[in-house]
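Lab notebook page, bench 4
Experiment: in silico fold of construct C2
Operator: M.H.
Input chain length: 370 residues
Purpose: comparison with the prior construct
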Amino acid sequence: MEIIELIKSLMRFKTETGNTEEIEKLLAYLENLCQKMGAKSKICRYKGTSPVFFAANKMSKSYDVLILGHIDVVPAKPEMFEPKVKKGRLYGRGALDMKSFAAVALNSLEHVIKQKLPLKFGVILSTDEEKGSLSTEAFMKAHPDLAAKIVLDNDVGGDIEKIIARCKNPVFIKLLAKGKAVHGSTPWDGLDANEKLFQTWLNIRALYPAFSLETGAPKNTWIDTVHFATIKGGAVSNIIADEAEALLDFRLTEKSSVEELCKNLDECMEQGVTYKIVSASTPVVMSEKNPDILAYKKLAEKILGKKIAFEYIGGATDSRAFAVRGSTVIMHSGTGEGMHADGEYAEIKSIKQLAEIQIRFLEQFKGNVQ
């Protein structure tokens, strides 16, 4: 498999989340690709969400190694769906997030099959990761007994010289404020929902400090954070708003729980303001002394020719679905920049290095399979 050409082919599909036609075309392409390499594959469909593509050397409930990823992308200008190579970089939508690394996963699957490695290996690719991964949730719910000893998570793109050891828990909270609408000239006759919302926000901000380019990062970034994601209140300029709402994006470390967050929020609510949890997950925290992770790290360092470090990130990962089932999750990807931006790219050298690391790890891990 010529991996860079495969990536280019994947990137040409305009699989923006929700673009059903393009997603279906790419799923058909993947089915055909897997058939040619001798892999088993199926498109898993669930009511109310988009499909999940599942391919493996053999179908099972228990795997030695699975790779988790997605094939949907965020919206982009039409020209970004025609990949370009410049100075060793592959540019275009999906280059970094994450069609390059979906291709790496498929390359690993082909290697397992061609070399007849004695392990059960599979690839899971969702189609709505950029908007909440409801397809992954549905897939896991439909496969309650699905397990894997190792899960390779390629969806943490940015630096091949870093292995992610911890990811935070993203918790989205909606604030809802109620007031009484009156003419803007007599505010004493009404209740301003916007004011109530802002005061509640100030109460919350007192517990969770703000950080930006102006303040700089704290010495320890492994802390709970929150930012105003969206805010809406008022319809016209001369009417006191009787309703207002905001969506807050909390990122919690493994030291904090959703229950503790709710206790804090209960104390912050002004009269007439309530909140609800829109979504919550779980942090992914792997031991840096885990023998399989250390074996992978040692192998990666040998291939890269340099030491690599563990890193903690605030972003979330779909591999949490397997972490809670007891899998060892190895979060490692290639190098690039511009995720979700116009200048998105991945370093071609790092893509090939990651592909080699995965293949060598699978060959090495086969000795642990009983």
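Observations: The two ends are 29 Å apart (CA to CA). The chain has two domains: 3-167+283-368, 169-279.
Next step: discuss at group meeting.
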